[in-house]
Design brief:
The protein is an alpha+beta fold and 423 residues long. The chain is 20% helix and 43% strand.
């Protein structure tokens, strides 16, 4: 049923104007409020009550799906994060985090302060279920009830109360997390925020497990390069294909003692791709192919996009600028990824500068000669690649910051594998 049909059904039952009812529904749906809860909210606004019918079913968290409608759960509160959003023109503070019982874990958003904290066991009645990042999420609103339980609810093995995480374990969508990090890079910028010009800090933080980009929306004085900080109540969202840590007005910072590794975590390509994106990662793989669009390329002087036949997708006909890059497909037996190398790395592998590559192309009367030379050097050999990995509908890309021949001993690696499998 589309929104017009829902609005017509509600307007008819309430005796109200359909267009007004539709606008109210659209405002709620814009913030991903489930349709059933949105309809209940509209009924209450016009004095129509909760819509009648029996109460929601009590379910285990492991049985909740995106289409579960309204449910009642008894669970342990794992995390509670706070964030301010603008809803229907007003600033609203919401609570976000995770709940668990012995069957599983589910994220939630509470639209008011119900008073629960991490570690509490609660029964939540009439919680709506919506889909968020492909998973079910509980939506706890005005029509929901929360009651404290005296007996602690059991949670799955390995699930802990509290939001403390290493950077390598953070995922886009995490809320109410606590990290201990060193600020490795920071810059101050002024952006157009929802209340006009806003000063923020952005940069890179690190711990012993990895590095991630961050944004401090309050531009705190304590967040300076070299500072080692405990950051409580941060949330994580995807930024350019990788997790990014966000500090809000509710984030608390305190001094901490942190060791930062200079090494990126080394994982298989399958693990890296399966993570959905990693800011700083190292993989080993064999180059299967040097893709089209490698070697000599042309870029738009205004936006840097690739130019085809003098045409930029954004700026039309342009006078393009020459550049060098490599797009190499790596395979380690678990998955493949396209490693993208900038001009500096490409010049190292090619063994010449951009000007020398252009001269070689003129001598051969073909720009393809540069890509052919690069492919001859790379294909069939194993390389260690470090960089930022992102995954989208077109596949996985690794923007390389380091690209070097592997110095791993194949015999030692084979022996370790045989030992691992008990052969």
């Amino acid at each position: 049923m589309d929104i017009d049909a829902h609005a017509e059904e509600l307007a008819s039952a309430l005796g109200e104007d359909k267009e007004e009812v539709k606008r109210d529904l659209e405002n709620l749906l814009e913030y991903s409020v489930p349709i059933d809860e949105a309809k209940q909210s509209v009924r209450r606004k016009y004095g129509g009550g909760g819509g009648g019918g029996s109460g929601p079913t009590s379910v285990d968290i492991g049985d909740i799906g995106p289409d579960s409608g309204n449910v009642t759960v008894t669970a342990r509160v794992l995390t509670v994060g706070r964030r301010s959003i603008r809803y229907q023109g007003d600033d609203t503070v919401i609570r976000e985090g995770e709940l668990a019982d012995e069957t599983g874990v589910v994220s939630y958003t509470a639209w008011q302060d119900f008073g629960f904290e991490p570690g509490d066991s609660v029964t939540i009645g009439n919680a709506g279920v919506r889909e968020w990042e492909g998973e079910p999420e509980l939506n706890i609103g005005e029509s929901s009830s929360v009651a404290m339980e005296s007996e602690p609810v059991a949670v799955p093995e390995g699930v802990s109360v509290g939001g403390e995480r290493d950077l390598v374990d953070l995922r886009a969508g995490d809320r109410g997390r606590t990290v201990e990090v060193e600020v490795l890079e920071v810059e101050q910028r002024t952006i157009d925020g929802r209340d006009g010009e806003t000063t923020i800090h952005s940069g890179v933080i690190g711990d012993e497990t990895g590095r991630l980009p961050f944004t401090d929306w309050q531009a705190r004085e304590a967040v300076v390069e070299g500072a080692q900080l405990r950051m409580e109540d941060v949330y994580v969202r995807e930024f350019r294909g990788v997790p990014s840590v966000n500090l809000t007005e509710f984030t608390e910072t305190a001094p901490a003692s942190v060791e930062v590794s200079d090494e990126a975590p080394r994982v298989t390509i399958g693990e890296a791709v399966g993570s959905g994106g990693m800011y700083d990662v190292e993989v080993l793989g064999n180059v299967l192919e040097v893709r089209d669009g490698s070697g000599l390329i042309e870029r738009c002087p205004d936006c840097g996009r690739l130019v085809q036949n003098g045409q930029c997708r954004s700026h039309g006909q342009v006078d393009p600028e020459d550049d060098l890059r490599i797009k190499a497909i790596l395979d380690d037996g678990t998955a493949t990824v396209t490693a993208i190398l900038d001009r500096d790395l490409t010049e190292e592998i090619y063994g010449g500068t951009l000007e020398e590559a252009l001269e070689a192309a003129r001598d051969a009367m073909s720009r393809e000669v540069v890509a052919d030379d690069i492919a001859e050097k790379l294909v069939g050999r194993e390389y260690r690649v470090r960089g930022h990995l992102s995954v989208d509908e077109y596949g996985a890309n690794l923007d390389a910051s380091e690209f070097e021949p592997s110095d791993d001993d194949p015999a030692a690696r084979a022996s370790a594998l045989l030992t691992e499998v008990g052969a």
